[in-house]
Structure of G-protein coupled receptors family 1 profile domain-containing protein:
Amino acid sequence: MSSLSSTLSSIQQNLIRYGFPISLVLGNLGNIFSITIFCHKRHRQNPCSLYLMSAAIFSLIGINWGIGSNMYSLYYPPDPFTKSLFLCRLRGYLLQSSSLIYKIMILFASIDRFALSSSNVKIRSFSNKQLSIKIIIGIILFGMLISIHLAIYETIENNRCFFFGTYGFFFSIYQICIFGFILPISQIGFSFLIIKNLKTIRMRVQPGLIVENEPQNVLSKRDMTLIKLVLFEIIIGIMLTTLYPIQSLYSILTNDILNKSQDRIAIESFLNFIGLIVLFYLNYCITFYLYIFISKPFRQEVKQFLFKIIKKEQTTSIAMTIVQQRRLNHN
């Protein structure tokens, strides 16, 4: 093994050994907090909150199966996912389906915000709780069904659980189309439509510009907060996951090159690790902290939630102390 290959392998192992545990803990805590916040009664009636809550649930699955399985392989060799075909395919299926469902949930959150901010009453009617629940169920079923091919064709070769041969080529094209074009382009498109609708709303609420007998669309502070969360989620998500489809495209274009040097193979493997594991799953880990950073109302909701927990713990502790004291006095 060359010095470059050895260095890249060492960096990868250290990222898994030291960076992944931190990401796993922060990612799980962040997504659990997000789910708890969006489950609150003030959010349960909002369709966008339901989409974001559902995205956080599948983000948890992605984090634990993506990051957790890599950590397990390093800490408890040999890697069970390269020894058991069932585990290999199960991990691939869960990672692909959860990633796809997560991305589509964010897309429909943007579609919901577009509908809500529209000046067209019929389009606004699509932003409702009952419809969003049906769509969420449909997204889950769609994501599970369209990803079923991984549970059939992913295999183990040369001690690697991966996609090989004709299926590997098909899967790379599939990834490029969905994660490289369809989802990001759709998200960007609806983001621009949301911004356009917001500009229209601002113009119409200016003094002297309100048209009589025309229905006005005034968004609440919570709706504006959710729009902000969705837009930033899309921006960061695209930034962090762009390398993944690019890497897939590169793999297709260089697949027929037989005489690759050891250093080139090591670089390609390392970039694949960064694009597929580090950046792709980092998106799942930082969402909650992104929300806190960009939104003061969201920060306040988190503070209120934490204060309630602390107050409840203090009340329970005081009650237990009083009971113990009474028992001592009684004795």
